[in-house]
Amino acid sequence: MSTTRQISMSAAIREALTTLLREHEEVFLIGEDIGVYGGAFKITRGIVDEFGPERIIDTPISEAGIVSVAAGAALMGSRPIIEIMFMDFMALAFDGIINIAAKWQATYGDEFATPLIIRAPAGGGRNYGPTHSQSFEGLLLNVPNLTICCPSNPADAAGLLLGAYDAATTVIMVEHKTLYARQGPVAERLEPVPIGQGARLRSGSDISLIAYGRHVPAALQAAEILAAEDVQADVIDLRTVKPLDASLILDSLSNTGRGISIEESPVIGGVGAEISAVVMESAFEYLEAPFARLGAAEQIIPCSPALEPACFPSVDSIVVKARELISY
Amino acid sequence: MSTTRQISMSAAIREALTTLLREHEEVFLIGEDIGVYGGAFKITRGIVDEFGPERIIDTPISEAGIVSVAAGAALMGSRPIIEIMFMDFMALAFDGIINIAAKWQATYGDEFATPLIIRAPAGGGRNYGPTHSQSFEGLLLNVPNLTICCPSNPADAAGLLLGAYDAATTVIMVEHKTLYARQGPVAERLEPVPIGQGARLRSGSDISLIAYGRHVPAALQAAEILAAEDVQADVIDLRTVKPLDASLILDSLSNTGRGISIEESPVIGGVGAEISAVVMESAFEYLEAPFARLGAAEQIIPCSPALEPACFPSVDSIVVKARELISY
Amino acid sequence: MTDDQLLTAYRTMCRIRAFELRLNELFLQGLVPGTTHLCIGQEACAVGVNMALTTDDMVFSNHRGHGHLLGRGGDPARMLAEIFGHPNGYSGGRGGSQHMAVKDLNFMGTHGITAGTIPLAVGAALNRKIHRQPGVAVVFFGEGAIGEGIFHESLNMAAIWKLPVLFVCENNQYAMSTSHGDISPVANAAERAAAYAMNSRMVDGNDVVATYATTAEARSGVAAGEGPVFIELQTYRISGHSRGDECPYRSREEEAQWAERDPIARLRKRLEDAGQWTAAADTALETQLAVELAEAEEIARES
Amino acid sequence: MTDDQLLTAYRTMCRIRAFELRLNELFLQGLVPGTTHLCIGQEACAVGVNMALTTDDMVFSNHRGHGHLLGRGGDPARMLAEIFGHPNGYSGGRGGSQHMAVKDLNFMGTHGITAGTIPLAVGAALNRKIHRQPGVAVVFFGEGAIGEGIFHESLNMAAIWKLPVLFVCENNQYAMSTSHGDISPVANAAERAAAYAMNSRMVDGNDVVATYATTAEARSGVAAGEGPVFIELQTYRISGHSRGDECPYRSREEEAQWAERDPIARLRKRLEDAGQWTAAADTALETQLAVELAEAEEIARES
Ligand SMILES: Cc1ncc(C[n+]2csc(CCOP(=O)(O)OP(=O)(O)O)c2C)c(N)n1
Ligand SMILES: Cc1ncc(C[n+]2csc(CCOP(=O)(O)OP(=O)(O)O)c2C)c(N)n1
Ligand SMILES: [Mg+2]
Ligand SMILES: [Mg+2]
């Protein structure tokens, strides 16, 4: 493995975007205020200086148009990378995602591919309130032909972008906004992370903690606490939530017999429901306790710092749930 | 119980709409071509003659606008009932559903309720192809504060509309288009069906068949076939998929120890995933075989009569899966 | 249009009409799955526009797209196969009438979501502009599509970026049952272009010559980088919206008035008046088209 | 405007300015969670429009809504409580700056989705029309909101149904970092109204008198059933878009030019010139507002 450096997830994403722009003239970036302003989260800051406004395209406030216009360009050979300023606004573009991007190639044939990468800062934890804190991976899971990635660290955030480019399909990149500033080791030369492969971040035979995005660090912390109680957690970072790495999940559960999914989407109909169902179908015989789910509460995400944290899984709630399963 | 008559699901829905319009002046219908044309499926045929174009509002082709404009009217006390011509087009209105209708009251307080009933002909089986055959209940399940109903027969279709009116929240009414012509017994005077209550249509102690919409008749047929093999199926019609009737599901599974969900949404991240997870969490100790899911295939829904049927559960696939679980 | 072009236009319009009429028959016999939308009465739009385009141009269609595809050179056999849901159909039977595309023809797709292809055309044009490639994007849509927000977002972007797009609005007076007057505050669809400072044209879409000429003229400006143009083609859907539509929302008088402006009859009269066409030629053409179509149907059925 | 109204307008504008300046300080001290959008420079819009409305009118706001709510009579203490995320806030702390509504004031909500309240206003007006109730719907939005499809769908419906809606576009020249010229093919936002055959007005939104007069005049037509009106208020966001915006997208010269047109300074000058106001009065007002605000802050903090 090549040497690494510590950089933030923002910097890693910026580097991956720059790399793709340099290596492939078909790539362009498109979104609101991504040029001089660098986007609401400053991910694209400075990129326009190198590539100019023809490839770093600032748009009107038109999420639906952005996605579908990009799909049209993709249809002719472009490889657009879209930024939707907050994932909440993606709801405005669901027709383009569901009825166009996820369907054109499947319907009309392989000559009609519309490969898109759609990046979106997502999730809670910043007190932005009900319309600026959602994460739609749980909802989008039910759309056939869609790929959904949820990186938890700088190397994966960059690597999944390269992997998404290679996959040449419609990929939703869910970037948790609380992770942008997090530092992590990244190889000198960025390496693609293949779509659909999770990673085991810690081995343990007592309980599986299956997480993605910002809940991966939380799961690792919970694992430390549990280890002090002699409970060894197997921590899985899904990295891609669609397609799920079912074999890694099975591998983990067949060892532990107990597990928890930890997600940013609401629990009902979310990613954990799918994981639980997959565990049911593939690891039933190994289960020693019912597989459990943690995720966002069934409500709006409030702005108040006093109210918001209770809406999401935490190191504490993971530990509590794990103890419950261990003593089941 | 009052005497009943046999009418089609179309007629039952039409009667429920007429009843609501007569009894509550706050109710109006809004949608595309619902007046003189009676809607693409002729559900509202003739209604405009009684109530006039001021209460049966034909709109431009503007799904997003229809939902959000109706929400604005609801905010001031109206009780709009929307028709989205095909559920596929609801993707254009997801911002209004997710970021407005499902959030306004929860965010701003009870004085700011936006009660809406959104009816949508949904699902496959009519060879309408990829953009006219989808059913989004699995996807919408992940939206907090939303109610989703999927009637399987005329009485429930009418009764759930009355129940949705009483519930005074945002209710998505998923009407499977292959059911419109189906006849069934309906009480002389329509009776509301409370939101959130499933119904046991057949008792059995060997296996639970948990279905909704058009798969309920299929489950009942499968139950007949299984009965001939001495397998007694417990057939549950969910009627409402959000909120799920978890106690009925538990009640059934605790008796049978085996079960299958049968849905119109794609399997991954669909309604069955949630049911499976609920079964995992509540009925784990009773399970004698892994709970199984049947639903739409992970692909576009093709137009071809030769290809489409294979995309959906069928009497056959239910029976085959049931046998598999019984001999597990 | 040259004399030859006029004859070609006439033949193609008749081919479209024959295709649609036959499809209607097959429908009534229950031989067509799903649904379909016929363009009877709008043949001059499909043909006039298509004839003014080059092979580099990218054509986007909508739900009422048989004429657009036939006008672009689509193979009736593969279209029928698609409509029947057979494997040899343009989309392998997956798409049916509302979802066919042909890469070789730069025909980028009919589509079932109203207004859904408008942004795709804008994106295709954006691609051309970035990579300085030839060809303009052309998108056909009905006047009803103007109600969709994506219409607005698309025209706005095309205008600010001066993209090579021709927005071709076939105003056939109705969106399903809804008359244009009931859903438009402006009398003519073309007036919408003002909001985008976009050039617009209003043409008699039942006159293939005018349609061709306007499209050709507009296209050359668009191709030269002068920015998008909005063309309103005023026409009429002679057929119902889709299967089983008895058109209770419009009057028989109105239908009769428009029948007098039937684009095929008009062109035939013009050709006859100019001595370019005869009743005998017409009978021969009719027979030829019937034979062609029967062959196509045969191939489609077996495919 | 009467002399009294002018003084009221001035005081309210100063109250809004003081509120926003204090909020900015609190922000910089890290005492405000989430984010917030200040309307410094746009006070005349909020006040001029609100003063021309009646209590029956329903006001819809957007993300930059503090001025709209204060202008409607909102309680600064409850607003600050909401912004702090405290239970006594207008939305119980759930909504924060971008999500507050006050039923008693018929203030139907600030909102975080750009253009999201435009259709709500149309729906509120539809409700009024069906039930023949008094009051018009008024919606504030920025010129950036015009990019959204829902803007188009909403104006279209309001126009065809002749609904009582005032569409108030505060054109503050920028949507975040994007200048109006970069995302609009037409020079003035009001030109968009042409696509809906809608009456429109263009006003100096930094002149509270003109804003008031135009709104009052437009409102009376709207209330009389003459259909919706689009008002463009030309103004400037003196503050950055939100926290930490150093405005690299605009020039210091431009900022200086607009600073000369500061709506508060202009109104003060006018009042002073007319002998209605003095420097002493101004100092007294400043003190009074500071005291008021400190009290509100105190209440908000403890709530
Ligand atoms: C998003 C969406 N909404 C509604 C429909 C249903 N629909 C199909 S065609 C049509 C009318 C379209 O009218 P217009 O655009 O004028 O085209 P025309 O049918 O007249 O050719 C409607 C409402 C649809 N296919 N997609
Ligand atoms: C649907 C949506 N897209 C993008 C944003 C992010 N956003 C917040 S305010 C803003 C600019 C709005 O500009 P304008 O409408 O002119 O209002 P102004 O901020 O100038 O008052 C943007 C892009 C959003 N909140 N909602
Ligand atoms: Mg039409
Ligand atoms: Mg602005």
- Taking pLDDT < 50 over at least 5 consecutive residues as the criterion, the unreliable ranges of chain C are none
Report strand % of chain C: 5-15%
**Share of residues in strands of chain A:** 15-25%
Q: Return Rg of chain A in Å.
A: 19 Å
* Helix share, percent of chain A: 25-40%
Can you list the ligands bound to this structure?
thiamine diphosphate, magnesium ion
What low-confidence regions of chain A span 5 or more consecutive residues with pLDDT below 50? none
Shape of chain C: globular
Kindly report the greatest chain-chain contact and the residue count on each side.
A-B, 53 and 53 residues
E-strand count of chain A: 14
Domains of chain C (count): 1
Based on helices, strands and strand pairing, what is the structural class of chain C?
alpha/beta
From the N-terminal CA to the C-terminal CA of chain A, the straight-line distance is 42 Å
Number of helices of chain C: 11
Kindly state the percentage of residues in helix of chain C.
Answer: 40-55%
Q: Provide the residue-averaged pLDDT of chain C.
A: 97
Please explain how this structure is put together:
The complex is a heterotetramer, with two copies of chain A (328 residues) and two copies of chain C (303 residues). With 328 residues, chain A is an alpha/beta fold. Chain A contains eleven helices and 14 strands. Chain A has helices at residues 9-23, 47-51, 63-75, 94-101, 104-108, 137-140, 154-167, 215-228, 246-256, 271-283, 315-326, and strands at residues 4-8, 27-31, 56-58, 79-83, 116-122, 147-149, 170-176, 183-187, 199-202, 207-211, 233-237, 240-242, 259-266, 292-296. In chain A, the strands form three sheets. A seven-stranded mixed sheet of chain A has the order 3-2-4-5-7-6-12, with helices on both faces. The longest helix of chain A has 15 residues, at 9-23. The mean pLDDT of chain A is 98. Chain C has a single domain (3-296), classed as Rossmann fold (3-Layer(aba) Sandwich). In chain C, the strands form two sheets. A six-stranded parallel sheet of chain C has the order 2-1-3-4-8-7, sandwiched between helices. In chain C, strands 5-6 form a two-stranded antiparallel sheet. The model of chain C has no long low-confidence stretch (mean pLDDT 97). Chains A and B meet through helix 4, helix 6, helix 10 and strand 14 of A and helix 4, helix 6, helix 10 and strand 14 of B. The complex binds thiamine diphosphate (2 copies) and magnesium ion (2 copies). One thiamine diphosphate sits between chains C (63-64, 112-114, 141-145, 172, 174-176, 237, 241) and B (32, 61, 63, 85, 89, 92). One thiamine diphosphate sits between chains D (63-64, 112-114, 141-145, 172, 174-176, 237, 241) and A (32, 61, 63, 85, 89, 92).
